């Protein structure tokens, strides 16, 4: 199989500019990477998954730059970029040639009423995030992810009166999924979206959830030819948004 990677990678100069834009920007953090550390899953065992995540990170920022740009620093523009990133992450998980569909656990949207009162609405966001992320996290991680949950909820409630478009967050991590006698290396991608119903009274929150396990096809992965300099730039983006967690 011919490598599809080289033609899809930005130049090193472009990648450097992307990393700089991300680090210097004020967009809300909308993708969170978890690094589950355990004796059963040493980093060396999951190197193919992390390489894929680093590759995706540069692709995501390249697409954001091409389609939305980084010049507009306004609140809505910052959220437009932030909301776009989890969508791209979910898309890449589903279309990358060396990743295969292991499980799709997306959910239909649901409607929840907002009151405009800070504490009530923050709890609405927080419970929605907890109920989605909790069952999908490796055992023992739910309590440790409260800080991420609180950040998402606080960011959402503070911006809800000023923003009109969809807001999204993504959480992703590499893991070994045990299926009977077989172990599959997967990247789990979870995305939760919030959009206020502007056709009604403006206080109905539409919550959509998408979950996907992308399994690594090691044979196809080994045929790829990655530009190490581009991967290094992707690693810089991922590292700034990664939480190490002991499992």
Q: Can you describe what's shown?
A:
The chain has seven helices and seven strands; from the N terminus they run H-E-H-H-E-E-H-H-E-E-E-H-H-E. It has a domain at 28-113 and 163-246. The chain is globular and about 55 Å long. The termini are far apart. A hairpin with a 2-residue loop joins strand 4 (167-179) and strand 5. Strands 1, 2, 3, 4, 5, 6 and 7 form a seven-stranded mixed β-sheet that branches. The chain is of the alpha/beta class and 247 residues long. Helix 2 (47-67) crosses helix 7. The protein has helices spanning 12-24, 47-67, 75-95, 118-133, 146-159, 218-222, 228-239; strands at 31-37, 99-104, 107-113, 167-179, 182-196, 204-216, 242-246.
What's a concise summary of this model?
The chain contains seven helices and seven strands.
């Amino acid at each position: 199989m011919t490598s599809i990677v080289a033609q899809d990678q930005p130049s090193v100069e472009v990648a450097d500019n992307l990393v700089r834009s991300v680090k210097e920007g004020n967009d809300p953090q909308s993708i969170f990477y978890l690094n589950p550390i355990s004796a059963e899953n040493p980093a060396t065992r999951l190197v193919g998954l992390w390489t894929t995540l680093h590759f995706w990170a540069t692709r995501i920022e390249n697409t954001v730059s091409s389609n939305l740009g980084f010049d507009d620093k306004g609140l809505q523009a910052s959220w437009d970029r932030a909301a776009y990133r989890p969508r791209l992450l979910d898309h890449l998980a589903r279309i990358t040639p060396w990743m295969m569909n292991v499980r799709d656990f997306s959910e239909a949207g649901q409607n929840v009423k907002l009151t405009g009162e800070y504490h009530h609405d923050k709890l609405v966001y927080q419970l929605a995030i907890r109920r989605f992320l909790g069952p999908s996290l490796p055992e023992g991680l739910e309590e440790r992810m409260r800080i991420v949950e609180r950040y998402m909820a606080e960011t959402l409630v503070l911006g809800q009166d000023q923003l009109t478009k969809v807001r999204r967050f993504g959480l992703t991590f590499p893991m070994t999924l045990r299926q009977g006698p077989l172990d599959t290396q997967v990247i789990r991608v979870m995305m939760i979206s919030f959009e206020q119903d502007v056709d009604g009274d403006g206080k109905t929150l539409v919550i959509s959830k998408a979950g996907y396990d992308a399994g690594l096809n090691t044979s196809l992965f080994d045929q790829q030819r990655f530009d190490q300099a581009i991967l290094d730039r992707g690693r810089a983006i991922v590292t700034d948004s990664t939480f190490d967690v002991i499992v």
